[in-house]
Every structure is written in structure tokens, then in C-alpha cells.
Specification:
Elements lengths: L10 H5 L3 E7 L18 H8 L2 E7 L5 H10 L3 H4 L15 H7 L5 E4 L28 E5 L5 H9 L34 H13 L7 E6 L30 H5 L3 H6 L21 H31 L6 E6 L23 E2 L1 E4 L8 E8 L3 H9 L13 H4 L11 E6 L7 H6 L7 E6 L3 E6 L5 E4 L17 H17 L8 E4 L2 E4 L3
Parallel strand pairs: 1-5, 1-6, 2-9, 3-4, 3-5
Antiparallel strand pairs: 2-7, 2-8, 6-8, 10-11, 11-12, 12-13, 14-15
Helix pairs in contact: 2-10, 7-10
GO molecular function, one term: metal ion binding
Keywords: Hydrolase, Metal-binding
InterPro entries: Alkaline_phosphatase_core_sf, Sulfatase_N
């Protein structure tokens, strides 16, 4: 299953050079859209975009956490090729990406937010401060407004608006609450003063300065933790709202489900999710997880409101019908499923993400796609739309056939993602399991019927999704499923064999010189 990296643009694409607006909302679950029928979350902003575009219901991240997920999004490569294994893994400078490609198409791709790209240290001075953080900028982007996790730029903006206490991330602690409390009380800043509102405003101001087609990437931090949100979003949902949690009877039962879970779950820290909290997630009970999920839903609504603001600004500027909009996330959020929060591992809750593409040049675009799509498909989609070639082989495939209203004949029938849990700096996972770093990884192939999880050096998992959509019953060791397990293991092996780096594999030196043929 190969993808073309040299794709002929249509006459429409050649004639019209659109504005490009790529929006990511960090840690947004793919099921948390009213457009796909969520039990309580309402997303009128995303829904409005979907009514004029294409909604992809089965869209999946290629990896987790942030840096590996974004590497797949930006390069069109699976983790097995881009090799960004964790936050802090450098992105090899030899790879092409969507910002560099946009420059070749004549754009000045401009960033609002962050890309979490650790630079390739080869060729850099050992004392370069860029080598002390994974929160670098993807090569090719012009950074108009950075907003890394320390949020200093936003805090400075808050102080300019009269919030003298906005000197640290303690501003996220709800008014009247103590650090570490799970509280739906509002923080000191208003709905017009969130990080999302700040970045949206900076993008809108920049857009008003443009006099030629532009390319912008607006990378929102929310609904990424810490879980806190201002009025009215903090009280939109109650702990009883939402679907039944997908989880075992207890945290202990969940941990007993697999050696990786027994390792990872006790190492998940409360402070990663509630500002100032201490201790392990296992110290929170079912009511705590329900309260946190209600706040998370409110954070989604807060971002959605700013999306509506951006749509209106585009229309007010007369740019709506000239702008290709892509809305997605880097990865998702467990939100209490399987007694955990955050992202990683193998459960769908970490990887199923939203995707909506609205192309004003495609009048037949309105529709819903149920095929399995990947974050790796975004870069090749932009390549086709802009009529440019990637400079290396890609793992993703262009989504333009769907955006134009087609059926995507010959499309993949499964989702694929990877997770690497090595710990290069400290070696904790390696010591715990007695494994080498390159053995600390897993790969998932998941279709509409089954989900197979292959660990390089730990026991596999197999879930019968038709009977067990919550992924609670691992049948990998059940003799009745032995043939199915083998079948999916072979599918995974074939997928990986097809997607080994193809950059020069399609080139052969002959007596007439190099011949290149990409299917």
C-alpha cells in the first residue's frame, strides 16, 4: 500500500492559490464533537466548518505524546521512519515537512503557538540553548507568536490587561481553590483572556496585515491540561454528563491487564493534569475522574468558541471563500477511560482525533468519511492541493479524493499507530523491563473488527471490538482467536514492510542515468 509523493494538481488547483489555515487543538478527542453525536459536548464552531467541508470520523494520530505525534502530522511519516520517539527526540534535518514545502510553493508559513520540534543537534554548537528543550520550531516556519508550555507570552499579555498576579502558571488555580484541588471554579482570567483567545486574536491581527495568499498554522494548547477553564465554560457540564467510562472495575484491575499498564499507570502524576497537585493518579477515585472530565469538556467548548471567532473574522475580511481550513489535533486524551488521563500506550482514547477539511474550491466537499485516515495524510494532502512534491518518501496519502467528494477507491482498511516508551535520559523503562531502549515500543493495527497491539518484547494484545468496544477483554492468549491473532500480526508486518523509507527505493541508476518511478 504505497502512496504517491508526486501528485498532479487539477486545473482548479493550478488556477487558484488559496490561503492555508492549519489549526491544531492539543489533546482533543475525536469523539468529542456534536457533529459525530457526542452525548453532551456541543461544538457549533467545528460543526459549522464540517457543514461546508469534509468530516473524517475515523481519523487517528500516528504516535504520542506531542513531539512524536506532531512529527507525523508535519512530515507525513510514521514514527518508524521519522524516529521521533518521545518528547526530546530530535527530528532528523533530512526530512521534508509541510512548512518547507509551503515555502517552495511561494508561501511564508507563519506559526502561532508551538510545534514541539526538537532540533537535529548535528551541526549545532553544543552550547546552543535550542538543544536544551524539545519545544523548538519546525524548520520552515516564521514564528509570529510563540506560545510554549511556560506560557510567558500569554502571562505578559494578561499583565498588560491588568492582571498583576499573572506572573506564573499559578494563574490556572481556580479562584478560592488551593493548588492541586479538583475544582470547576473559574480562574482569575475571563473567557476573552484565555491562551486560546490570545492566539486567536494575534492570528486575526496578522491576517489583517496580509496582501497576498498566506499560510498560517494556529497551534492551540487547549484542551491540554492543566484542567481549568473560565466562566461560562467551567459550569457547562456536570460530572454526570457524558458516556459511560471505558474502564475495568478498578484501577488495580486495569493495571493487571498488561505488564505495560502495570508499569505506566503508577507513574502517571496528578500534577501533570491539575496544577499544583501531588501524588499518583491512582489516588483519585471515580468521582474525581468524572469531575475532571466535565472540566475537559468545558475546555473543548472554550476552544470551539474561539474557532467560531476565527471563522467570522475570515468572513469579515472577505477571506472565507479563499481559505483552505484544516482543523485537527496532535493526539487525544484518555479523559478518565481506563482509570487514566493524558496520552500514550495503545488505547483508542489517546489516538482517535478530529479532522475537518474545508476547501472552498471543492463544491462537492460536503460529506462524512468513515474510512480510516491518519495524521500522516495531512502533508500529502497539502502537497496535492498546492501542486508541489515532497522531497522524500511519505507514508500518508492525499485526502483530496475525499475532499472532492470521491470515495477514495483502494483506500486503507485499518488505522495504524505507534508508541515508544524508551527513557534515554534516565533508563527507567529499560531497567524495569530489563529491555534495550529499542525494545521499548509497540505498534497497533486496528480496523472495524479487531485491534492488535504488538509489543517488541512484551506480550501482545488482541481486542474483539465488535463485542468489546471498550477494549477490556484481551483475547490474545485465547486459542479460539489464534488464527485471527496471526492474521493481524501478518497484516502489521506487511504494513511495516511496505512503509520502510522509500525515498531512494523508487530510484534506480541505469546506463541512461537515474530513473525514478513512484506509483
Amino acid at each position: 500500500m504505497q502512496n504517491p509523493t508526486s501528485i498532479e494538481p487539477t486545473s482548479i488547483e493550478k488556477a487558484r492559490r488559496p490561503n492555508i489555515l492549519l489549526i491544531t487543538a492539543d489533546q482533543w478527542r475525536g469523539d468529542c464533537l456534536s457533529a459525530v453525536g457526542h452525548a453532551c459536548v456541543k461544538t457549533p464552531g467545528v460543526d459549522a466548518l464540517a457543514r461546508e467541508g469534509t468530516l473524517f470520523r475515523r481519523h487517528y494520530a500516528g504516535a504520542a505524546p506531542c513531539s512524536p505525534a506532531r512529527a507525523t502530522l508535519y512530515t507525513g511519516l510514521y514514527q518508524m521512519n521519522h524516529r521521533v520517539c518521545r518528547n526530546g527526540s530530535p527530528l532528523d534535518a533530512r526530512f521534508d515537512n509541510l512548512a518547507l514545502a509551503a515555502r517552495r510553493a511561494g508561501y511564508d508559513p507563519t506559526l502561532f503557538g508551538y510545534t514541539d520540534t526538537a532540533p537535529d543537534p548535528r551541526g549545532m554548537d553544543a552550547g546552543d540553548p535550542h538543544l536544551t528543550t524539545y519545544e523548538g520550531v519546525l524548520p520552515g516556519f516564521t514564528a509570529r507568536q510563540l506560545l510554549p508550555e511556560h506560557e510567558k507570552q500569554w502571562l505578559s499579555w494578561l499583565r498588560s490587561r491588568g492582571h498583576a498576579d499573572a506572573v506564573s502558571r499559578d494563574i490556572h488555580i481556580p479562584v478560592g481553590a488551593e493548588a492541586g484541588d479538583i475544582s470547576n471554579a473559574a480562574p482569575a482570567y475571563s473567557a476573552d483572556e484565555t491562551q486560546t483567545a490570545f492566539l486567536a486574536g494575534e492570528f486575526i491581527r496578522w491576517m489583517g496585515e496580509q496582501d497576498k495568499p498566506w499560510f498560517a498554522h494556529v497551534s492551540f494548547l487547549r484542551p491540554h491540561p492543566p484542567f481549568s477553564v473560565p466562566e461560562p465554560f467551567n459550569r457547562m457540564f456536570t460530572p454526570g454528563d457524558g458516556p459511560v467510562f471505558a474502564r475495568a472495575a478498578s484501577c488495580e484491575a486495569e493495571e493487571n491487564g498488561h505488564p505495560y499498564l502495570a508499569y505506566a499507570m503508577p507513574r502517571s502524576d496528578k500534577g501533570s493534569f491539575i496544577h499544583g497537585a501531588r501524588g499518583q493518579l491512582s489516588g483519585w477515585n471515580a468521582e474525581d475522574f468524572a469531575a475532571i472530565r466535565a472540566i475537559y469538556y468545558g475546555m473543548i467548548s472554550e476552544v470551539d468558541a474561539q474557532l467560531s471567532r476565527i471563522w467570522q473574522a475570515l468572513k469579515d475580511a472577505g477571506a472565507w471563500d479563499d481559505t483552505l481550513v484544516i482543523f485537527t489535533s496532535d493526539h487525544a486524551e484518555m479523559a478518565g477511560d481506563h482509570w487514566t488521563l493524558g496520552k500514550g500506550g495503545f488505547f483508542d482514547g489517546s489516538y482517535h482525533i478530529p479532522l475537518v477539511i474545508r476547501d472552498p474550491a471543492s463544491s462537492a466537499a460536503v460529506g462524512v468519511v468513515d474510512k480510516f485516515t491518519s495524521a500522516a495524510d495531512i502533508f500529502p494532502t497539502l502537497c496535492q492541493r498546492l501542486g508541489i512534491d515532497a522531497k522524500n518518501g511519505l507514508d500518508g496519502r492525499s485526502l483530496m479524493p475525499f475532499v472532492r467528494g470521491g470515495s477514495g477507491q483502494g483506500w486503507r482498511d485499518a488505522a495504524f499507530w505507534e508508541f515508544d516508551f524508551r527513557d534515554i535520559a534516565h533508563g527507567e523503562a529499560e531497567r524495569h523491563f530489563g529491555l534495550r531502549s529499542n525494545e521499548c515500543n509497540l505498534a497497533v493495527i486496528r480496523d472495524a473488527r479487531f485491534k492488535y497491539v504488538h509489543f517488541t518484547a512484551l506480550p501482545p494484545l488482541l481486542f474483539n471490538l465488535a463485542d468489546d468496544p471498550m477494549e477490556l477483554d484481551n483475547v490474545a492468549a485465547n486459542p479460539a482467536y489464534a488464527a485471527i491473532r496471526l492474521d493481524y500480526a501478518e497484516k502489521l508486518l506487511s504494513l511495516r514492510a511496505c512503509h520502510l523509507d522509500q525515498t531512494l527505493a523508487y530510484t534506480e541508476l541505469t546506463e541512461r542515468g537515474p530513473v525514478t518511478h513512484r506509483p
